[in-house]
Each structure stands twice: as structure tokens, then as C-alpha cells.
Amino acid sequence: MNLSNYLAPEQKQSLSANQVQALNILSFTNQELEDFLTNEYLENPMLENTEHKENEIMTSIEKFSDGEVSSTYIDQHPGNPNEDEPWRRELSAKKENLLKENLLGQLKWNDYTKHQWKMMSYLVDCLDEKGFFTHDLEDLSAASGYDRDELQQCLTILQKLEPVGIFSPDLTECLIRQLKAKSIEDETLFLLLREHLTNLISGQIGTISRNLGISTVRVKEYIHLIGSLNPRPIMDIQQSEASYVVPDIVVSRAGGKWNVEINDQWTGEYKCSSYYIHMMEESADPELTAYFRERLERARFVIHCVEQRRKTIIRIVEAILKHQEDYFEQKGPLHPMRLEDIAQDLGLHASTVSRAIKGKYVQYKRTESLKALFTSASAKNTEQQEISPEYIKEKIRALIAAEGKKPLSDQKLTEKLADEGITISRRAVAKYRIQMNIPDSRQRELFSVHP
User: Fold this and answer.
1) Per-residue DSSP letters for 387-414?
2) Is 445 exposed, middle or buried, given 0-12, 13-18 or 19+ CB atoms closer than 10 A?
3) Quick one: residue 353, left, alpha or beta (phi over 0 = left, psi -120 to 50 = alpha)?
4) Which of 3.40.50.2300, 1.10.10.60, 3.40.50.300, 1.10.260.40 is the CATH number of 379-447?
5) Rounded Cα distance, 18 and 52, in Å
6) Radius of gyration of the chain from its Cα atoms, rounded to whole angstroms
7) pTM of the entire structure?
8) How many CA atoms lie within 13 A of 274 on its CB side?
9) Which residues contact 361 (CB under 8 A, 6 or more apart)?
């Protein structure tokens, strides 16, 4: 066997780091983009925001500034619990029911004795209005008659429950537990929370920076991270507000023309800082100048990517509107439309269209997912035009609604669709009928059920 080395020319295309970053920015939802830009703003002095982003970041900390409401055990729980009464009878209000059921429902019933269940129920009742456990176990033991060590064991169990931070002794430990749950082990950050929380709430960034020996940029990054935490874990349980989808794109129509806007006005406008550009131009320090130039290039790149994202999404939505105009105006079903169709119309790659619509919602007369607007063709008519499943379903629904006293079987429906130029199998008709929750012909005849 003859072994030898040789050189052969080969062409290989690969994406640069900037290209990968640009594609990631394209795929961001508006909220994800806002988080990304906030982090960039905190790290890059060359990036400036017209909406006073620094004030907004500090506003996220204001939720931590409410004074602690002190309450004694005797105020919350007059008297001792009835040891003979089942623990479920201690529930008195709907809100307390929800809290207790949510917390204790995370535990397996068979893992604990009846006595332990009573103690854990008792400890849940000792939570304050924020979800903190501020009582001394010695006092609780003396007041309730429960053993102090047994109460400690039950408290340790309860502190592991969701939401993270529940049963913490104070705000600081609550926040640290949430950070550790995110695998964040930053002793400087923990020290900030333990010794400088008051300075943090009052916005004394300079004081924190000097005392901890870190830059103000680092302090702002900590503030942004802390602002994403929950200072009152009990609110996650007690507040059962409805969840709403915020559209990424808002569509309107005036004078027969579509108007497409990205719903990101609340993020503000980002631009390069003229102050730091001037500082760079006046600087005589080569190292500082090089740093500013690198940060300026990064800021310009990010701003360019955001603007390209905006233009690309608007172009794609405008193309979708042309394909699905009847659907948006509620005059007809969705037409068959693939990623490749939009990509071909705009001269883009299908993967670019896929990234641009990922996780995004559009609002016109209703709010819906962009991804849901793409459908594949299920059949073709006699003119070889593609027909969507939604169109066929509407035809089936109309035929059944007009069938009269003698219900149409799936075979008859297949034949009538064929008369209208739509050729599909009887099995496909049955599948669509079932998806629309329409009974078969025998059941419709028996119960006179029509869509």
C-alpha cells in the first residue's frame, strides 16, 4: 500500500462571528432585543439611548425600596393551633388557600407524617405578606408547643420550594437564593446585597463602586441583574393575572395601503455617543484611543444590525400581507404559503425568513403568530393551483351546512369536492371533518347536528 501526502484546493464558506451575531439579532423578539441592547448599553460607553436607559435601569430597583412591614407573631396568629383539628381546616381565606395549596402541593403526601404536615401548614401561616419567614423558631416553639428542632427540619424543607426565595429570612437572602438558582456564584455581588443594599436602592452607584473596588459599569450590570429578580416571592402565587401577548409587529391599513411598524418604540433609539467620540478624538493616550475605537466599531455594528433587522422584518411582513390579504381582512382562509415563497419574493434565503419570524407576533384585527401564517398545500384543483387545508375545511363546512335532511357521507363530500375541482381522498375528508369536531353522517342524521 502506497501512502503519500498531497495538496488539493477546496472552497469552504463559513460565517464570521459578526455574521452569526447579526443572524441572532434578527431572530430576537422585541423583548429579547431589549435585553440584548440593555446589556450592550451597560458595557459600551459609546452606545447612547434617547430614553435615558440609565434612569430606567435604576427604576427597576425601585421595587426593592418599600419599607419592611414589621408584624409580630401574635398579631398574625392569636392563640395556638388546634392539634386535633385536621390541618386543611386551618385555611380561612381564598388567598391563603391558594398560597398553601401551591406550596404544600409541591410535596409528596407519603413522604411526611401527619404531624409534619401540620407543622408545615403552621409555618406557611407564619409567612409575611412578601413571602419572608421573619420569626424566631424558639418563639414559635414556645407559642405553638411544637418542638424547635422539628420546626427547623420542616422549615428547611419548605425553603426548597418554588418560587425560589420563599421562606427566606429577609430580602437579601431571598435575592441571593434566586441568584444561586441561576448558577451565579459572585461573591462581590453577594457582598453588595449584604452590605450595600441601602446604597443600591438610593442609587449611590459611586459609593458602591468605591467601597467594593469595582467600576461603575460593573455596578450598573449588577443593578440590571438584580432588577430582574423578584423581591416578593409570594406575589408569584397570589397574583393570578391574565397573560397577554405583546405583538412584535403592528399592522394598520389606510387608503387601501398596508402600514407595517415594529412595536419597539418603548426601547428608545440607540446611537453613538458624541461625547465619547469627541473624547476619543481629543485623547493623546494611544491605549485609550484604541479602546474607544473598538467600542465605537461595536456600537456601530449593533446599531446597523438592529436597523437591518427592522427593515428585514418589515419587508417580510409586507410580503406575507400580499399573500394573505383576504385572511387578514377576514374575507377568506389562509392561502398556501411556504418560507420558500416569501424568500423567493424578496431574494432572501428561507433560513433568513425563518429566523425573522421566529417567536414573533403580528397584530391587525387580531394578534397571532407569524409562524402560524405559513401553511403547506394539501391538494391542487383542476387548474393545478395549490389549495390550503383551511380552504378545504371551509368547503366541507359549507357543504355540510347546506346538506338538508339527508346528511352527506364522507364519500359524498369527496365527490362534491371533486365536482368543484378539488380532488382529495375520502380519508382526508374524514380527517378534516374530525378536526372541525363535526360528527359523521349517521350521527348528524340521528341528532340533527350541523356546524
Assistant:
1) E-HHHHHHHHHHHHHT-TTSPPPHHHHH
2) middle
3) alpha
4) 1.10.10.60
5) 27
6) 31
7) 0.58
8) 1
9) 245, 246, 247, 248, 249, 367, 368, 369, 370
Beta-carbon count within 10 A of 204 CB: 15
Q: Helix count (H) and strand count (E) of the chain?
A: 23, 8
Q: Cell 409580630 maps to which residue?
A: 72
Q: Give pLDDT < 70 ranges for the chain.
A: 1-4, 6, 8, 10-15, 50-97, 236-244, 266, 376-386, 447-451
What is the C-alpha to C-alpha distance for residues 308 and 264, in angstroms, rounded to an integer?
14
pLDDT digits 0-9 by tens, 97-111: 678 888 888 888 888
Three-state secondary structure call for residue 184: coil
Dihedral, 350, 352, 356, 359 alpha carbons, nearest 10: 70
CB neighbourhood size of 290 (10 A): 12
| Domain regions of the chain by residue span | 14-51+246-374, 61-66+170-227, 73-158, 379-447
Query: For residues 177 and 164, is the Cβ–Cβ distance under 8 A?
Result: yes
79-117 burial, b if ≥16 CB within 10 A, otherwise e? Answer: eebeeeeebeebbeeeeeeebbebbbeebeeeebeeeeb
CB 50 within 8 A of CB 281: no
